[in-house]
Every structure is written in C-alpha cells, then in structure tokens.
UniProtKB/TrEMBL annotation:
The keyword S-adenosyl-L-methionine does not apply. Gene3D superfamilies: YVTN repeat-like/Quinoprotein amine dehydrogenase. GO terms for cellular component: nucleus; site of double-strand break. Residues 1-110, 486-511 are annotated as: Disordered. It comes from the Eukaryota. Keywords: Repeat, WD repeat. WD repeats lie at residues 132-164, 233-275. Residues 487-501 have a biased composition (Basic and acidic residues). This is WD repeat-containing protein 70-like. Pfam families: WD40 (PF00400).
C-alpha cells in the first residue's frame, strides 16, 4: 500500500465517512480543508470496512434517480395496458369485429410471425369502432378540423353532413346537413389551419366557402366556356376535381379541374376573378386535365396529378411552368385518384384507379380511392375496393422503408374503402365506405377525445312530463301546381266515374228560363249581326243605281256640256310599230 492510500484511509476512518458521503454533523469547518469528494457504491453492510474507490471523481448512479424524482400524486385510477386488459374490464364503445377469415390474413414476409406483444408495434388505433350513418350513397371524402372535434363527410348523395363529437351521444347523429350543389357529388372538403372555415368542391364548376357552422360565405365565379384561351376566363369552365388550402394560410387556396388548369384564388376576390391561372400540358404539348392535387406541408409546392399519368410540381409564385415533372408515374389513361406529400415535403405517395403503383401491387381499387401517411410518416395507408356484396374492403398499411405490408384491417363486408384519414392530434382513423357509412376507429389507450367523447354519453331519457304541441302538417306537394298532368283519356275515364256528371237529366218538357243577366241585352244593342254573306251581290249593286245616275262620281264634269254619254265600245287592237328600212 502506498503512502498516499494509507493517509487517505486514515483520514476516512477518523472522519467516519459513509460510502455515499458524510453526515451533516461531520461537515468540515471553515479552517479545516475539505478533502476531495467522490461517490462510491452503496455498501451492502454498514459494519464492514469500506473499500477504496478504483477511481476518483463524480459518477452517475442510476438508482439515485428513483428517490430524486418529483413523484406527483396521480389523480384517478391508472390507465390499464392493452396487453394486460382482462376480459371483464370496462370497455369504451363497441369492440372491433373479429379479424378477417382465412385468405385475408396479413401479407407478411416469409418466416415473419406476429406475437401478442408486437401485434400492434406501429400503435395503430383500431381496437374499437364507431359507425356514423346518415348518407344514402358512397362517402367520397371525410375531413376533420385541426382540433379533431368536428367531422365533415360528403358523398355521392350530394349531402354534406357535419358531426360534432363533443355534442353527440351514443346515437351518433349529425347536427347539420348541407347541399352545396344540387345534383353534384362532393369531391373535396378541407378546413383552414385555424378551423374557423372550410372549403368545399363538388363536380360543378364552382367551389364554395363555408364557416365552421356550415353557413355559406362565398362562391367562386364561373368561367366562360366559349373562350378558347383559359387565361382569359375568370373561373373554371369544367368539372372541379380537387381543392386545397395553402398550409398555414387561410386566404389562399387552389383548385384543379378537367379544363386543364389549376387556379389559385384569394378569398377576398373569388366572386370576381381568380388570382392566377396555371395551364396543364402533357409531354406532347397538348392540354391535359388535372385529376387531383395536394399542397406540401411547408407551403412551397403544389403537386398536381394529370390524366396522362404524370405528376407535375408547381410553386405558389407567378410561374406557369412546372419545377419538376414525373413523367409516366402511372400508365397513360389511368386517372390518379390521390397524391399526398409526406411530412418532409419531399416524398410523394400516389394512388391509381386501375393499375396501382408497385408499392400497392395486386390491390383492387375504387375510383375515389385515397392514400395517405401516418402522423409519424412511417406508414403509408390506403384502401381496397370490392364488388358489391362480394369480399371485404380492407384498410392496408405499408412500411415506408421496406415497402412491405405490415397490417391490414377489414372495414366492411361487401363494401369498398373510398376515403381515409388519420388525425394526428386525437390519433383516430376515419374511413368512408361505399355503403354510405363512416367508420371511426380508435383505441382507448392510444386515442384521445374524438369518438371517445360520444360513445360514453347515453341519450336523454324520455320524461313523462315532456310536452310538445301539435304542429300543422305542411305538405307543399299536395298543391294543384305540383299535381301530375293527366292525359285526355285518363281525364275522360275519371269524368265517367263522377256521379254528378253522369246523372240522368229530368224527363218531360222544360220551361224556359228568363235570363237574369244584362249582358245579352247589351250585346244585342251594340253588336249587330253581319248578314252580308246572305245577300245577293246583283241586288246589292242595283240598289245604288238610282243614286249613281243622279250624282255621277266620274262623269260629273260633262253633265252640262255633254249630258249624253258617248262611249267607245270597240275592242282594243295592237298597234304595229313600223321598223325603219335598212339601207
């Protein structure tokens, strides 16, 4: 043992240091020099002689964090883990239906098996389900506000339904129904980043703006379809296919249309003219319609999917040429139904209506099918289409890095998956299907608010003291102006069944009845019957012969000089004109 180690050991024994330090009573005085501090392992037995440290200086001891943490008192019972949940534990909302049958299992890599612990490795909230009913046809688009409290759904029945999770009970009924454009399907719905207004685009030529409560605030102007140059038109001249807000900007939005243009609008001037027109052209220089679009999260680019299978990127600046063109991203003639930017504003995911991208190989699809990203951008989510009543519409998840299918969820038997949404704040999935239903998937241990607020509320019980007065029944279609026009044959058939019209007349002589109206006398006085057609023309002329002799009209000038009239009754002869002789 060296001299330094012996001196240090003697000093520790004299001061009675513990392994983790010294006591408060043995603190050094102002005149006593403080020795070098160190932290050693906790002694297993206090009576044993402490060992010397192998090195000097402060060390981190993990066990010390246990008693140095600021442990706060928990309010309420602790949240149970999904794996440790018993069968008789309280469940929020109805459970999900059983997994797909044989032949519909997850498409995993060879030799890969999912265990009970890692079956939900990606934390997909799908253990419970709430079904919203109200549409009569396919739900083509769904949208949630930034807070996740208000849901919008639009479909082929031209109805826009608004759902409020905080105000709904277990009945799950919408609080408002709006028809943006009669007879036109809804193609796009999107809230502003503040959630105070939303944009609605239908298959008509005009997009509309609504406030949060569904009151219309404005409508885009309609373009002149007879102008050849689309730059000179003030609005779209064909069907709108998609509309989207510029991220973090509630004054500008963009629309795509089948008129081969995308137009940038300002909410202050939508009734007069768009702000900018960008023409879409194919590889051969001819115009091509836009199928759909999406704005990058950073608000720098607009990705437009065209009908020729290409994807073109534009900026929000006044530049009509694309900054990047992905030629033949899909086969020509196959409409791209969805294009979505990743959170990094660099990666794109697209979905085709006929021949899907290689990532989504062998997946059946529907014309309104979408694809989207998970909130952490690690998964790509899309759906499948099936024939009506044959098969199950699936919600499929792909890993971004390996491009392998990691999960698939059966949504509805015999119905296709059309619109999908994964909200990042409430962590819930919203799926619209072709059977006119909206499925909200959630997990009580992973999700917050949203459908969790509605499924726990019981509807109000009916009180026997409730009273509501009877209201008049208004049937406007019962008015004569709404009655159907009948043919003459059907009118005669109805008249023959009328007892008043078919009643037998009284027999015997009828007594004349005196007229009680003065109109016949007035007509007889002021209107005389014209009998000229019944008179003889010769007699009518001879009646004026005597008057014509006494007062001649044409020969009155010769009455004194030549009272006897001398007329030439010889017939007129042709006067021959003598032609001059030629010399």
């Amino acid at each position: 043992m060296s001299d330094d180690e012996a001196e240090l050991r003697a000093l520790r024994q004299s001061k009675q240091y513990q392994a983790v330090g010294r006591t408060k009573a043995d603190q050094p005085t102002e005149t006593e020099p403080e020795p070098q501090r160190f932290v050693a392992d906790k002694l297993s037995n206090a009576d044993e002689e402490p060992e010397l440290p192998t090195s000097f200086g402060a060390k981190t001891i993990t066990s010390k964090y246990d008693f140095t943490k600021d442990v706060k008192k928990k309010i309420g019972p602790s949240r149970p883990q999904a794996s440790a949940r018993s069968d008789d534990s309280e469940m929020i909302g109805p459970p999900r239906p059983p997994p797909p049958e044989e032949g519909q299992e997850d498409d995993l890599a060879e030799g890969e098996q999912l265990t009970a612990e890692d079956s939900n490795y990606y934390k997909i909230p799908y253990s419970h389900e709430a079904i919203l009913k109200g549409h009569s046809k396919m739900v083509s688009v769904v949208c949630l506000d930034p807070s996740g409290s208000r849901l919008l759904s639009g479909g082929y029945d031209t109805n826009l339904k608004m759902w409020d999770f905080a105000g709904m009970d277990r009945g799950l009924r919408s609080f408002r129904n709006v028809v943006p454009s009669e007879g036109n399907n809804i193609r796009a719905l999107e809230f502003t980043h503040t959630g105070d207004a939303f944009l609605c685009a239908t298959t008509s030529w005009q997009a509309k703006l609504y406030n949060r409560d569904g009151v219309e605030e404005g409508e885009c102007i309609k373009g002149d379809m007879y102008l050849m140059d689309q730059v000179n038109t003030k609005g779209h001249t064909s069907t709108i296919t998609k509309a989207a807000w510029r991220p973090k900007d509630k004054t500008n939005f963009v629309t795509s249309s089948m008129d081969a243009t995308i137009r940038i609008w300002d909410v202050e001037t939508i009734k007069r003219k768009q702000r900018q027109v960008i023409k879409l052209k194919g590889d051969n220089g001819k115009k091509v319609g836009g199928s759909t679009l999406h704005c990058s999260p950073d608000g720098s680019h607009i990705a437009v999917a065209c009908q020729d299978g290409s994807v073109q990127l534009f900026t929000w600046k006044t530049n009509s040429r694309p900054t990047l063109t992905l030629k033949e991203a899909h086969a020509a003639g196959n409409d791209i139904t969805s294009v979505k930017f990743c959170g990094d504003s660099v990666t794109l995911a697209t979905r085709n209506s006929k021949t899907p991208l290689a990532v989504f190989d062998d997946l059946p699809n529907f014309g309104e099918l979408e694809c989207t990203w998970s909130p952490d951008d690690n998964l790509i989510m899309t759906g499948t289409s099936v024939k009506k009543g044959n098969g199950t519409g699936l919600l499929v998840f792909y890993d971004r890095k390996t491009l392998s299918r990691v999960k698939q969820i059966g949504i509805s038997q015999g119905a296709s998956v059309a619109s999908i949404l994964w909200h990042p704040k409430i962590n819930q999935l919203v799926v619209g299907t072709s059977e006119s239903q909206v499925h909200v998937l959630y997990d009580p241990t992973l999700s917050t608010k949203g459908a969790l607020l509605s499924v726990v509320k019981a509807p109000r019980a009916v009180d026997p003291n409730d009273f509501e007065p009877a209201r008049p029944i208004i049937t406007p279609h019962a008015l004569p102006m709404y009655a159907e026009t009948l043919s003459q044959k059907r009118k005669d058939a109805r008249s023959s069944r009328d007892p008043r019209k078919t009643a037998k007349l009284a027999e015997g002589p009828l007594k004349p009845r005196a007229s009680t109206s003065i109109m016949p006398a007035l007509f007889a006085t002021f209107i005389k019957k014209n009998t000229q057609r019944e008179e003889d023309p010769r007699d009518a002329l001879l009646a004026h012969a005597a008057d014509a002799d006494e007062n001649p009209m044409f020969f009155g000038a010769y009455k004194e000089t030549q009272p006897e009239k001398v007329f030439d009754y010889t017939p007129e002869t042709e006067q021959r004109i003598a032609k001059p002789k030629q010399t």
